[in-house]
Design a protein that fits this description.
This protein is of the alpha/beta class. The protein has one domain. The chain has ten helices and nine strands. It has a five-stranded parallel sheet with strand order 6-5-8-7-9. The protein has a two-stranded antiparallel ribbon with strand order 1-2. Strand 3 and strand 4 form a beta hairpin. The radius of gyration is 21 Å and the shape is globular. The chain starts with a helix and ends in a 5-residue tail after the last helix. 31% of the residues are buried. Bound molecules: zinc ion. The site of zinc ion has 7 residues, from loops. Its main location: nucleus.
């Protein structure tokens, strides 16, 4: 049987191996709140942030993950796969109890569409499902929902020529509702009634103008190259596209040939929600969604440590 230190090494080696396809690994702009200012001035501050990229986030204690790491890999009770912390196939925890990890409620529903060829172990989509199980659904392409009737309340986070900013979502969705409503005046009665009900939905209950008609946000979880097939699927064509413009990734598996702003799925969800909270709900952000990065921040630190000890990072 392996000693404790052997097991730790194995974990780090595994994680390091997972990150190794990125030969150009280097620290990007960190995730901490200071990182939102993409300054070029103070290099000592930037170095500090590179060492502690998650500083300033309100994260639950990682003690539970440290303990699970000492135990080592265990069999997933559902698929029997050998896993650490969670099973990326079954979306369930392994060696960690539900009560021990943070759980949060999101202000909108999240649909994540995964590419079937995506190597599951590298996907961060499962992090969202584990931390916000009531609000997150993961679909494997091509099995995705029909959004055609929900264009007034659903957006797709993906950059493109017609994409809008998070701040513009409310206005754009209300315009979709109004267009549909006036088009429906030409329609026979039952269909018109349905559209009228949708418009009322979008505008809020009993005449109250709700701040934002958004109810569901769709993310695509796949490598940069595989995404094009999903994005051109006609079921997604009608959706308003939203772009997260200013974020730079701190993903340790930064993908070759992708722009710096290409985010890990969990980063994209986090940044979207933070912007949505401030710009659409007009509320002060006080770390409400920081724990979405609970697993991500731990794995990131672990990989950095392993890279340091392997002498790959200065
Ligand atoms: Zn499993």
């Amino acid at each position: 049987m392996a000693s404790k230190s052997d097991r730790i090494t194995t974990v780090e080696e595994n994680l390091l191996k997972a990150g190794e396809d990125n030969e150009c690994f280097k620290e990007k702009e960190p995730l901490g709140s200071n990182s939102f200012r993409i300054s070029t001035g103070d290099s000592s501050l930037r170095n500090e942030q590179a060492i502690q990229p998650f500083q300033g986030l309100k994260l639950a204690s990682h003690n539970v993950l440290e303990r699970a790491q000492l135990t080592g890999r265990l069999k997933c009770s559902k698929c029997c796969g050998s896993r650490m912390f969670y099973c990326y196939t079954c979306f369930s925890l392994v060696g960690v109890n539900q009560e021990e990890i943070p759980q949060i409620k999101l202000p909108v529903k999240i649909d994540i569409i995964k590419h079937p060829n995506e190597t599951d172990g590298k996907s961060t989509a499962v992090h969202a499902k584990l931390i916000a199980p009531d609000d997150v659904t993961i679909y494997t392409y091509p099995c995705i929902p029909e959004y055609e009737d929900k264009r007034h309340s659903v957006v797709l986070v993906f950059p493109g020529p017609g994409s809008v900013t998070v701040e513009e979502i409310s206005k754009q969705l209300l315009e979709v509702s109004q267009k549909r409503s006036s088009a429906s005046l030409e329609e026979p009665c039952p269909k018109r009634a349905k559209h009228d009900a949708e418009l009322k939905d979008a505008q809020g209950v009993e005449g109250q103008q709700s701040a934002c008609p958004l109810q569901r946000v769709v993310f695509i979880d796949s490598t940069w190259n595989q995404t094009s097939k999903i994005i051109t699927d006609e079921r997604l064509q009608a959706l308003l596209q939203v772009e997260l413009k200013t974020r730079k990734t701190c993903f340790w598996r930064h993908q070759k040939g992708s722009p710096d702003t290409y985010l890990a799925t969990i980063e994209a969800i986090y940044y979207f929600l933070k912007d949505y909270h401030e710009q659409c709900l007009s509320q002060d952000y006080q770390g409400e969604y920081d724990n979405l990065l609970f697993f991500y921040s731990y794995l990131h630190q672990l990989i950095n440590k392993a890279k340091h000890s392997a002498g790959k990072l200065n």
